[in-house]
# Entry
Amino acid sequence: MTLSAVEVHKLKQAPALDGVLPTILHRWSPRSFSDRDVSPADLKAIFEAARWAASSYNEQPWRFFVGRRNSPTYQKIFGALIEFNQAWAKSAPVLILGAARTTFSHNDAPNRVALYDLGAAASYLTLQAAALGLSSHQMAGFDEAAARKALEVPENYIIGAVIAVGYQGEPAALPNEQMLAQETSPRVRKPLSEIAFSAWGQPADLG
Ligand SMILES: Cc1cc2nc3c(=O)[nH]c(=O)nc-3n(C[C@H](O)[C@H](O)[C@H](O)COP(=O)(O)O)c2cc1C
# Structure
């Protein structure tokens, strides 16, 4: 007997950590999405959240393709995914592809943090989704050249990730055992001592 969607959602929560925003603790990336559609208001809200992310020179280099199920945009994004991702992402009602302009618009100089800014906007998007009770799952597993061609992304834009958005579905609906096992196992993270330093490799004193 596999775990239900509700049981898995509980299992995936990060432990309560003093002072950390609850939405950050609640967000996780399912592969099983339910049939339920995302409302136009919620879809708009997640992009409003992305829009208000910080960016270098306030360039806002991010651009997003928004594909709703059965739309040409959805088909184009879906068509670029690797087989592994297609196998589960087909249940998601919304697929998003992010790209970022690699030059500043005020002087055409290279923007070496364009992808960083896109990632920040994507984080806002996924957290806003979580706050609305939606789930999201980001993907690097797609053919970048195929996506660029299908969506006619200009050369001076770097392509980031695909983001599946929708409502969490039942784990039992996943197409194979490997995905089921991953969907029903707890989330893991490196300890702070491995990521926050006072000098290279030396854990910062965070109390
Ligand atoms: C940029 C990026 C690319 C990812 N690519 C894939 C992918 O191609 N396929 C997939 O199933 N999951 C992908 N993931 C999901 C990660 O495996 C997942 O976020 C990670 O295991 C942490 O789990 P959590 O999001 O539930 O905390 C990706 C996540 C990110 C942020």
